[in-house]
User: Fold these one by one.
Assistant:
Number 1:
Amino acid sequence: MTYTPFPYIGPEQIAALASPREAVEAVEAALRAGFDPADDPARSHVDVRHGQFLIMPSERADSAGVKIVTVAPHNSGTGLPRIQGLYVLFDAVTLTPKALLDAPALTALRTPAVSMAAVRPVLTRTTEPLNVVVFGAGPQGVGHADTLKSVLYGTREISSVTYVVQRPEAHTALRHADVAVVATGGRHTANVVRDADVVVCATTSRRPVFDSSLVRDDAVVIAVGSHEPDAREVDAGLLRRAQVIVEDVTTALRECGDVVMAIGENAITREHLITMRSVVSGEVELATDRPVLFKSAGMSWQDLVVAEAIVSRLDESR
C-alpha cells in the first residue's frame, strides 16, 4: 500500500485558507447540523519537568483530531513562545493522518470565531455603530477585534476600538484613527466601559478586570482569558445581571472560574446558564433588556471544526 504524505499547514497558510468570517460560519454550521458540545471529551493536562502538555482530542463523522499544546512558563525569558504546539487531523474511520497544523495559529483563529458565533444573533439585531473595548492586546484580544470586523462587515460599522492594557507604550503599533490604547484603571477606562457596546476580556488576570456596574443593559461581554475554576475576569455581579452563554454547562462548571465562583457566591445557579448551541440554532432567543455574557472555556470540537474547514479549502485549491 502506498503511503501519501500529509501536508503541514503553517500560520501564514492557515490565515490564507480561512478568513475569520469563514471560521465563524464553520462553527455555526457544526452546531446547526446537530453537533452537541456536551459529547466532546474533556481536555487533559500532563505535567513535565519544564511545563505542561495540554491534550485536546475530538471527533465528528468524517474526521478526528487532537491538539497537543505545550506550556513552558520559563520561555518568556528566552525569546521563545510560552505556548507552542501542533494539531493533527485524522480520517475518522481509518484514523489515517490527513494534515498537521500549527496549533497556536489554529487557536488564534477559532477562539474569536467561537465567541462571535455565540453572540452574533445579538450583534446583528441593529445596524447602529459599535464601540468596542478590549482588555488585553495579545493575539486573542486583537483577534477578537479583527473577527468582529470581519463578521459585521457590510452590516454594522465599528466606530471605535479601545485596548485596555497595563503598558500602553508596548502597543503603540495598534493605534490609528479609530483605535486607542489606554492604561488599565483610572477614569478613562471606566468611561470607555460605560460607553461600550461590546467588551472583550482576553487577559491572564485571575481577578475581575473592570467594575461590572458600568456595563450597559444592552451590552455584550465576551470573556475568554481564564479557564481555571479559581480564576475569573468578570465579577459575580455581572453574571447576576446577565444572560450567561457557555459552550457546555458541564465544562463551564469544571473549568470556568467566572461561572464557578459566581455560583459559589450565590449570584447564579446552574439553571442560569444558556448553551451556545441553543442560541446559534435559534432555540433560545435572548432578551434585549439585560447584558449578554459569553464565557468561553475553549473546547476540542472547536479546533476540529475549524481544522476541517481549513483542510477542505486546501483540498479545493489543489
Note: The chain has a mean pLDDT of 94.
Number 2:
Amino acid sequence: MNKKPNFDGMSVDELWQLHEELSQVLSVRLTSEKRELEKRLAQLRREKEMRQTESADPQRAPRERRKYPRVFPKYRNPEEPSETWSGRGKQPRWLTAALKTGHKIEEFVIGKPEGSGESPRRRRA
C-alpha cells in the first residue's frame, strides 16, 4: 500500500479531483459487490424453493387443531352467581379469598349442568 498522501499540501482542486476519483472507484466496487450478493441471494432462493417443492408431501401437511369439548363450570360464587369457574387454570380471586376465610371448595360446587345428557368424560373416541 502506498504511503499516506499529504492532504495539507494539496490544493482544493487537487483534493476535489481525488474525491471524484475515489467516488468513482467506490461506486464501481460497490456495484460489483451488490451484483455478486444479488446472484447469491437468487441462488439461495432457488435452492429453498426446490427444497420446499421436494418436501411438499400431502401427508406432512399441518393438521387442523383438534376441537375440544366445552368445559362446563363446576364452581359458582354464591354472592355473585355470574362468577363461575370450571376447575381448570388458576383459581379465581373470589374462590381464593373464600378458601382463605375457612370455606371448603365443596361449598361452591354446582349441580349437574343443564342440557348435558351425559358426562363429558364418558365419551372417548
Note: The mean pLDDT is 85.
Number 3:
Amino acid sequence: MTESTARHTPGTPCWVSLMVHGLGATQEFYGALFGWEFRPGPEQLGPYVRALLDDHEVAGIGQLPADRHLPVAWTPYLATDDADTTADTIRHCGGTVGVGPLDAGEAGRMAIGSDSVGAVFGVWQAAQHIGASGAGRPGTPVWNELITHETASVGKFYSCLFEYHEQPVVSADLDYVTLRLDGRAVAGIHGVGDVLPREHGPHWMTYFEIEDVDEAAVRVTELGGDLLRAPCDSAHGRLATVADPEGAVFSVVRSAD
C-alpha cells in the first residue's frame, strides 16, 4: 500500500467516501471518468472498495443496505487524533452524531455526524490508513466546500470543533469563508442564501482535479450522469458541477496554475 506516512493535522479533510445502491455500476462510472481502479476493504464497512490512482488511495465507495433509502452524496472526512472526543465535541457544539464512533478494522476509527445546519461529514482517526494520497493529480479530490445558506453560524460550529482560523472574503455580494490551519487553506464555507437547492439543503461539495473540464462534462453525461453547472472560469480555475448516475453531486476543476 502506497500512502503518505505523515498524519494530517486535525481538522484537515483527509478522505472522501460515497455510499451508493449499485456498487458495481458506480465503480464503472468513476473508473471511466477518473481512471480509478479498486481494492476491497475494510470488511467492517460491509461491501466497500477503495479507489486507487497509480497505486495511491484517493477515495472510498461503499454499498448501502437495500432497506436504507439515504441520500447518495460524497462525504468528506476530517482528520482527528481522537474520534471519540471529536464526536463528543460535535454534540457539544450543536451538531449530531449518526454513526459511530466505530473501528474500521486496523485502518482507523471513524464517526459520521452532521453540523449545526445539518450538513453531513465524517471524522477519521488514522491507524494504518492515513487517508488520501497523491493529491493534486487529475482524478484526486483537491478541495471541499460547505454549501449553506450563510456562513456566520455554521462557521462558529467548525471553529468550535477544530482550531480553524476563519478568513472571510471581503465582498459585498459574496458570503465566503476559508477555513485555515497552520496558515494553510484546507476547506471553504460558501453562503448562497436562497439559491441553495431545497432538495439538497446544506451539504459538502467535493472538487476533483481533472485535465479537461469541458471534456469531463461531456463524458459524465455519456456515462449516465448529469451536468448541473456548465463549465466556467473562476479565480481558482475552470470548473463544472455534475452528478453521477445515482445523483451524487460533485465538481470537477482544472486548478489555475
Note: The domain at 13-126 is CATH 3.10.180.10 (2,3-Dihydroxybiphenyl 1,2-Dioxygenase; domain 1).
